[in-house]
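COMPLEX REQUEST
Ligand: pyridoxal-5'-phosphate
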Amino acid sequence: MTVFDIAWVRTQFPAFSQGHLADKGFFENAGGSYPCAQVVDRLHRFYTARKVQPYAPYAVSEQAGAEMDEARARLAAMLGVAGDEVSFGPSTTANTYVLANAVRRWLQPGQAIVVTDQDHEANSGPWRRLAEEGHAVREWRIDPMTGSLNPDDLRALLADGRVRLVCFPHCSNVVAAINDVAAITAIAHRAGARVCVDGVSYAPHGFPDVGALGCDIYLFSAYKTYGPHQGIMVIRAGFGAELPNQGHWFNGDTLYKRFTPAGPDHAQIAACAGMADYIDALSARHGGPAGAGAARLAHDLMRAQEVALTQPLLDYLSDRNDLRLLGPAQAAARAPTVAVDLGRAAEPVARALAAYDINAGGGNFYAVRPLQAMGIDPDLGVLRLSFVHYTSRSEVDRLIAALDQVL
Ligand SMILES: Cc1ncc(COP(=O)(O)O)c(C=O)c1O
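STATUS: Structure written out below.
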């Protein structure tokens, strides 16, 4: 069994060598992770040495364009899809609005879509607005006690064959239970529906093999996945060609331009190659290969590390009778995004934790619908303690000690 080299991992993140951050236990990673050094270096290099309009026939411009192409190609390889199936946009929310506009014209009268009440608003509200055009929007509802989605309920929603698109999260940013994307996708495909998955809360815990999952669209946010502030969309070629082009008409033949109407952020796209550099380096450090193999190994390393560190926190929280833990109590079934309902305003508790050098957040995290569905007042919100593979055991121990003081 490979020993996870946490000391090396932390050297890859400049934040941990900043005086004002080094002593803080960071537990708001689901809001945005620290970027890895490889991303910071590439962004700096682009702004200082490549900052020209890319793809023109002179050396620095060709270099700038090549770095953007490199990011797309290397991320695509890690995600198990073709290069032109990866596109970049300003954020996952903005990307979803663009996609929803495309679906708006793709749906025929009488057809329906499915959304959940487990999703962050980004993979919910933009789709629900299709109801304004008279399209039927059906809600796949969570169990109010557990917050989980039952595939049998989806089967019932698909039974009449009218649903053309199913939107759901790989895991929710407050419930954190990992949904079986491959199985759910197969159910939707058998019923003739396409599938859009919000992977924002999952991808930071290891790039998935999107090709193997089989979904038609997979969305995630680079700024929560050790990268710059970009939204990344995987749009599989078949569905991408079916949906109407949302970009300039003369760019419609290029898949990765069809759903990015605005000019792309050149520097940030180029910097996304640093995410692949980091995954390759993490794999190499643990004796693994580069490229797709690195992504699979990094995924498994991250998950094993996170599961080991999450379980003590879940056990501690489950043992208390003054709070409600959202989502599974078993670490293997969830992401390390641990939300708790305190029955009182969560933000002041997060503030109290800061006095113990624990940085965390309290609020509704734009998961208003899931909280309401579980009977939690979104104005009181939940305390969210979210971590990733670079979180150390001593940080988790300090978090538990601090919780003991403030709860
Ligand atoms: C699960 C989930 N989906 C979508 C989003 C929206 O991502 P973005 O900020 O890139 O629009 C977030 C942001 O917090 C999220 O947690």
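REMARKS: The chain is about 40% helix and 15% strand. Residues 292-319 form the longest helix (28 residues).
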